[in-house]
Write a structure and sequence with these properties.
single chain, 107 residues, Alpha-Beta Plaits, 41% helix, 29% strand
């Protein structure tokens, strides 16, 4: 199992607007292809202008297949367009994490 760990950093004062915008315009399209995220959370202490989401995949091929389907979805493309227009996002960082041999999600 692998985990796709994404951190998004936003302009100060826009984090809640960005989360609400994503909920309204992006979430349904994303979960339609990726399933529900392992984690979706915003920072309470530290860099309070960021949020993190983590998606679980069987392997790199599973990730590639699901993300390709999402990228081809017109609803997702419309979300990306509108997101670029609102200008909230400053930075995105992606990491692929590999589960430790003893880790069992949901246990």
């Amino acid at each position: 199992m692998i985990f796709d760990h994404l951190t998004y950093t936003f302009r100060p004062g826009t984090i809640m607007k960005a989360l609400e915008f994503y909920r309204e315009h992006g979430y349904a399209a994303q979960i339609r292809h990726l399933g529900k995220p392992f984690l979706y959370a915003y920072t309470d202490v530290g860099d309070v202008n960021s949020y993190v989401h983590v998606w679980a995949y069987a392997d790199a091929a599973d990730r590639q297949t699901k993300r390709a389907a999402m990228q081809a979805d017109p609803d997702w493309q419309e979300y990306l367009k509108k997101s670029a227009e609102n200008g909230y996002l400053l930075k995105q960082e992606n990491k692929i994490l590999v589960a430790a041999p003893f880790f069992e999600p949901g246990s």
